[in-house]
Design brief:
The protein has six helices and three strands, in the order αααβββααα. The protein is 51% helix and 4% strand. The chain is mainly α and 189 residues long. The protein has one domain. The two termini are 44 Å apart. The protein binds zinc ion. Zinc ion (ZN) binds next to loops.
Length: 189
């Protein structure tokens, strides 16, 4: 049975490879889906802020999509200074025209990480209070200034929608198309 250790080694490598591919960085194709999910949290929280005082019992704010994706959002903090909107060339210095193609269609980097993490941090603090109030079966200790979230939510939404506009040309992903017979038989193209 000389081949056995090699087979085991191969299996370990295959499992490791799958694990590495599964975790970590968000692929370019998945980035709009992640942003859409974050937008879902943001928009729901905007509704919850508006309706907060109408509720008899406070409802916790949403941060599920943030929790899932927060460690993979490097792409929302771009490191260049200017990027050409025509040829995608990234510039490390301030320029008036693209050094590669001469276009004046240049944009600033997206830097949304801080805005999002501060906002969701506040959301988390509010949720902790709401959770504690539920446990104590009393809302008397609840001291939540929901207005504190309005501006950060508006900024987050604006930033994420701008990112969508810039990346896919619209504020939201189109709804998925219903599966056709061909796609069911042969998979999505
Ligand atoms: Zn260019």
């Amino acid at each position: 049975m000389d081949g056995l250790p090699i087979i085991i080694l191969l299996l370990v490598i295959i499992v490791m490879f799958g694990f590495l591919r599964g975790g970590g960085r968000v692929g370019r194709g998945n980035q709009p889906k992640v942003v859409q999910a974050l937008l879902f949290d943001v928009k729901l929280n905007q509704v919850l802020v508006e309706t907060f005082h109408m509720r008899e019992k406070p409802r916790r704010f949403e941060r599920a999509n943030w929790e899932v994706n927060k460690d993979n959002l490097d792409f929302l903090d771009e490191t260049f200074v200017k990027k050409c909107g025509d040829c995608d060339h990234e510039h490390e210095n301030t320029v008036e025209k693209c050094e590669k193609c001469g276009s004046a269609n240049l944009r600033e980097p997206f830097q949304l990480g801080n805005t999002l993490s501060h906002m969701f941090e506040t959301v988390g603090e509010f949720n902790d209070q709401i959770k504690a109030a539920k446990k104590a079966k009393s809302t008397s200790s609840l001291n939540i200034d929901v207005d504190k979230l309005k501006e950060p939510l508006a900024q987050s939404r604006q930033g994420l929608e701008d990112w969508m506009m810039c990346t896919i040309g619209q504020k939201e992903l189109p709804p998925p198309e219903p599966p056709t017979l061909t796609s069911m038989l042969f998979g999505q193209r």
